[in-house]
User: Which sequence fits this backbone?
């Protein structure tokens, strides 16, 4: 085996796939370049490739319902949102301080969009994020409780420095479900950040959780270190619908 073949074999065995695929053409075009410069270029290409692959994997595992960033968000449509608060959240200081974020507001005002944008921002900084709807979270906790592996599940969740629990309040919870939700909230309290969204105001959480005492205890922990963003405004979905209904109205 000559050195050419050996180098390719080493690169392949070391999993340096990007380097292996570009090394031939790059060396051909770099006769007069210093060895260090050549290594510098090839290794930086490999690193870029690895980082983007890891980011893509994290995005795939995150469970986001869509991929949208803050650039896709039209702040002029939602003037009740203080842009400086969202910009501050984008610095991710809240994550480093293990604070929570709560987005409150009626359907369609961008609660999920802003949560996902914050989640994507975290992933770009190599922070693992997991998105789930509140309903799916409760179902999972219930199943794992029945299978006697609740502790394992909660430990698994704690691997995510950021979790997004979307759509709290669409269905009222039973007492058992509320208790499981409380255990989830407690497990993350002051240890991990969580973004919650809800179409219900905090005063209505008693009804959702079916018990004023549990609701107060849950809110106490969520809100102790928390940024609350209250969105009052029109649904963006409705705006699109109105636009698309204009031509039909003209025809009539
Ligand atoms: N201000 C906005 N600018 C751009 N797109 C928006 C805005 N608000 C909402 N959207 C879009 O409208 C849809 C509904 O928003 P979503 O975040 O799911 O609302 P919510 O979670 O509050 O019900 C999504 O596709 C979202 O990207
Ligand atoms: Mg939503």
Assistant:
């Amino acid at each position: 085996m000559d050195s050419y073949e050996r180098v390719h074999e080493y690169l392949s065995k070391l999993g340096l796939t990007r380097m292996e695929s570009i090394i031939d053409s790059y060396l051909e075009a770099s006769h007069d370049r210093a060895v260090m410069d050549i290594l510098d270029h090839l290794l930086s290409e490999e690193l870029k490739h690895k980082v983007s692959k890891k980011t893509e994997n994290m995005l795939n595992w995150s469970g986001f319902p869509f991929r949208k960033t803050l650039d896709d968000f039209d702040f002029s449509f939602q003037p009740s949102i203080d842009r400086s608060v969202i910009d501050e959240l984008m610095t991710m200081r809240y994550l480093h301080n293990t604070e929570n974020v709560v987005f409150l507001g009626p359907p369609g005002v961008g609660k999920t969009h802003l949560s996902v944008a914050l989640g994507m921002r975290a992933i770009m900084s190599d922070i693992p994020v997991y998105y789930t709807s509140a309903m799916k979270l409760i179902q999972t906790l219930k199943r794992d409780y029945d299978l006697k592996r609740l502790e394992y599940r909660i430990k698994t969740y704690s691997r995510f420095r950021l979790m997004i629990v979307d759509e709290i309040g669409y269905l009222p919870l039973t007492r058992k479900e509320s208790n499981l939700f409380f255990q989830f909230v407690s497990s993350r309290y002051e240890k991990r950040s969580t973004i919650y969204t809800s179409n219900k105001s905090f005063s209505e959480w008693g009804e959702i959780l079916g018990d004023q005492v549990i609701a107060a205890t849950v809110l106490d922990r969520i809100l102790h270190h928390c940024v609350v963003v209250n969105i009052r405004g029109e649904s963006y979905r409705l705006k699109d619908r109105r636009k698309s209904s204009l031509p039909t109205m003209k025809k009539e």
Observations:
- The chain is about 60% helix and 10% strand.
- Residues 70-238 form a domain with the Rossmann fold fold (CATH 3.40.50.300).
